[in-house]
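Quick one, tokens below:
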């Protein structure tokens, strides 16, 4: 499978801040590639470098097998992107916006093509409504229609569900799946809404504080062998001390007030429970979590609290 995006040792530094710190990743043809990170993790900075809106401090980017720096015009013609909220002319209709952006892009399209594009994103019935009457979700879908007008091979969406209600989020999710499954588009979508990415992405990258934490498939990242166990007790200091001296010491991650976090194989949870009871732990709750969100939080929390149990 050929690589659409190939990023090697990419960095971006602003004065003393490393917004992106030596990350590498590959997006293959046909991927819905989730780009995950908390707000400020470096997602938007990376995307802006992919679109040549800002220059990297170090590293290289290849798109469609070509160096982005030396083949900028040819490469960008094959990309459609929506960066945060789309810039739209709110006193024009959806149809007029789409037609205007098509002309600005040098794309010759028929009225039928414009109408079909609006139908694809679920806006055909509002084609002649002014954009100022649209919800944020409708504006996002119109932004995606504009990004698709030149039939790009690669679509880049930066936080496309930000500020949307549940129905708007579902609409964008279904649109992304449609573009992938029925039109064969390769899609890179950044988000901090982990559950949404888990529903649509086949591969993903997790970054934190500008650094790559993990890359892989959902199946690889949501691994039963790496189940996070949230343990809530009334005697946390006693339980932590016992855990540190027990066979579970390597599973121990951190403690916040009455909550203790451990990582282990899901099959070990009954054994842990029995040992805790025997050791005198006053258990209020014990919850194994094997979702992308729990895995993401364990990685980023660990990255922030690496010294919790080392002193």
């Amino acid at each position: 499978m050929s690589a659409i995006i190939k990023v090697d040792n990419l960095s971006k530094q602003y004065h003393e801040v490393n917004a992106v710190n030596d990350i590498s990743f590959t997006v293959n043809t046909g991927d819905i590639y989730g780009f995950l990170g908390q707000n400020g993790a470096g997602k938007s900075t990376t995307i802006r470098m992919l679109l040549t809106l800002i220059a990297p401090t170090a590293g290289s980017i290849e798109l469609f097998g070509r160096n982005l720096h030396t083949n900028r015009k040819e490469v960008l013609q094959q990309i459609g992107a929506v960066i945060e909220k789309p810039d739209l002319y709110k006193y024009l209709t959806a149809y007029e916006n789409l037609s205007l952006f098509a002309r600005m892009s040098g794309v010759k399209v028929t009225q039928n093509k414009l109408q079909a594009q609006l139908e694809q994103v679920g806006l055909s019935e509002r084609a002649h409504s002014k954009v100022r009457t649209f919800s944020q979700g409708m504006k996002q879908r119109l932004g995606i229609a504009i990004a698709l007008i030149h039939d790009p091979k690669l679509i880049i969406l930066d936080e496309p569900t930000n500020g949307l209600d549940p129905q708007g989020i579902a609409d964008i999710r279904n649109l992304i799946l449609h573009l992938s499954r029925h039109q064969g588009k390769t899609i890179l979508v950044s988000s901090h809404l982990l559950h949404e990415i888990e529903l649509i992405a086949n591969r993903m990258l997790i970054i934190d504080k500008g650094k790559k934490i993990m890359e892989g498939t959902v199946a690889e990242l949501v691994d039963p062998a790496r189940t996070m166990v949230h343990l809530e007790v009334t005697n946390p200091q006693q339980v932590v001390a016992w855990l540190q001296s027990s066979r579970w010491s390597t599973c121990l991650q951190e403690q916040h007030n009455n909550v203790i976090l451990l990582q282990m194989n899901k099959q070990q949870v009954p054994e842990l429970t029995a040992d805790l009871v025997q050791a005198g732990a006053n258990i209020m709750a014990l919850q194994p979590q094997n979702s992308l969100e729990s895995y993401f939080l364990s990685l980023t929390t660990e990255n922030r609290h690496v010294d919790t149990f080392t002193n």
